[in-house]
Amino acid sequence: MAQISLEKVIKRYGAVQTIHGVDLEIQDGEFVAFVGPSGCGKSTMLRMIAGLEEITGGQLRIGNVVVNDVEPKGRDVAMVFQDYALYPHMTVGQNIGFGLKMRGESSSIIAEKVAEAARILQLEELLDRRPGQLSGGQRQRVAMGRAIVRKPKVFLFDEPLSNLDAKLRVEMRTQIKRLHRMLRTTTIYVTHDQVEAMTLADRVVVLRKGEIIQHGRPLELYERPNCRFVAEFIGSPQMNILPGRVVSSDRGAAIEFDGGTIVLARLDAPVGAIVDIGLRPEHLHPCAAAEADFAVDVDVLEELGSDTLAVCFLGGRELTVRIAAEESRGLSGKLPLRFDRKHLHIFDASTGRRLEAA
Ligand SMILES: Nc1ncnc2c1ncn2[C@@H]1O[C@H](COP(=O)(O)OP(=O)(O)O)[C@@H](O)[C@H]1O
Ligand SMILES: [Mg+2]
C-alpha cells in the first residue's frame, strides 16, 4: 500500500519559512495534482516527499511508515523532472535500465523490464538512439520509462511537460493518464497549469504561499471554489469579477454593482458589505434587453471555431463572455446579458472567502 500522509509539514530555509504546516492524505492509487502560481511551494513539497529536501517540522508517512529521516533510495518513489535529466552518452535503453543496473539486477531482467517499459511508452524503435537524437516528447517518454521500470510505490512528477510545445503537451497528458490507468501507482503531479491539473488528476490541491487553499475533485473546485483566489485560478478564460455592495431589499438580499442589481433570496452578508460577484464566461448569455441582468459593450470577438469569446466592457471593467459560434456573428455595440443564477459566486471582498447565497 502506498498512501501518503502529511501532517503539519513545515519547511524552513534558514529563518524563512516557505511551507506552513500542510496536512494532506493521499489514497493508495490516487492521482493528485499540486497546482499554484510560481513560487507557492509545489516543488518544495514534492522534493520533501521524494527525500531530496529535509522536512523541518511535522510528519510524512508513505505506506504507513514515517519517512522523515529515510533516504530517497529507501522511500521507493520515482521522480520525473521538467528537464528530464537523461545521460547523454547512454542509449535510450541504457537510460531506462540504469536504475535497475545500479540496483544490481541481472542483465536478462533489465532487458525484460526495459522492453516492457518501451512497449508501454512506444519507445521500441528508439532504444538504440541517444537522447541528443530524440525530440522533446521522446525524451520525456524516456524519463518516464526510467521511472516506471523501477515499479515504485509512488510517482512524483515536477512540471514534466513544461518544456514541450502545446500540441505535444496535450498528447503527453493523454499518455500520462493512460499510464496511470494501467499501473494505478499513487501519483503526485506538480504543475502551474490548471488545465493540466484539472484534466489529469482525481484530486487537485491548490497551493498558495506555502499553504493548501482548497483541495477536491476538479469539478468541485470549478463549481464551488471556496475563495476568490481559487475561483480565478481555476478555469480558462478566468472568471469575471464584478465588485458590488450589499443593499437592503424587501425581496431578500440585493447586491448593487456598476451596471445593475442582483436580487437573491438569501445572502450570508450584512447590508453594507463589500463583495465580489464572480461569473464565469460560459454562464453569461446574450438575451433580449427586457430579460437582461445588465448590458455590456462588445469590444473584441475571439472566434475559436466551436465558440467565440466576446471581450466586453461593463463601465471600465473588462468582462469575457463565451458564446456559441453561430450566435456570435457580427456582434457589436451593446449586448444585453443574463446570467445563470445557480452558477453565481459571491466572495467577501476583504477576505476573499466564498459567501453562501441562494
Ligand atoms: N534552496 C532554497 N533556499 C531558499 N529558498 C528556497 C529554496 N528553494 C526554494 N525556495 C523558496 O521557496 C519558495 C517555494 O519555492 P518552490 O517550491 O520552488 O515553488 P514552485 O515550485 O511552486 O514554483 C519560493 O519562495 C522559493 O524562493
Ligand atoms: Mg517548481
From TrEMBL:
Domain named ABC transporter is located at 4-234
User: Sorted alphabetically, which keywords does the UniProt record give?
Assistant: ATP-binding, Nucleotide-binding, Transport
Q: Which InterPro entries match?
A: AAA+_ATPase, ABC_transporter-like_ATP-bd, ABC_transporter-like_CS, ABC_transpr_MalK-like, ABC_transpr_MalK/UgpC-like, Mo/tungstate-bd_C_term_dom, NA-bd_OB-fold, OB_MalK-like
UniProt-recorded name of the protein: Sn-glycerol-3-phosphate ABC transporter ATP-binding protein UgpC
Q: Which PROSITE patterns match?
A: ABC_TRANSPORTER_1 (PS00211), ABC_TRANSPORTER_2 (PS50893)
UniProt xrefs under SMART domains: AAA
Q: Which Gene3D superfamilies would you find in this protein's record?
A: 2.40.50.100, Nucleic acid-binding proteins, P-loop containing nucleotide triphosphate hydrolases
Family affiliation: Belongs to the ABC transporter superfamily.
The protein's GO terms of the molecular function aspect are: ATP binding
Q: Which SUPFAM superfamilies match?
A: MOP-like, P-loop containing nucleoside triphosphate hydrolases
Segment forming the signal sequence: none
Which source organism does the UniProt entry give? Paracoccus benzoatiresistens
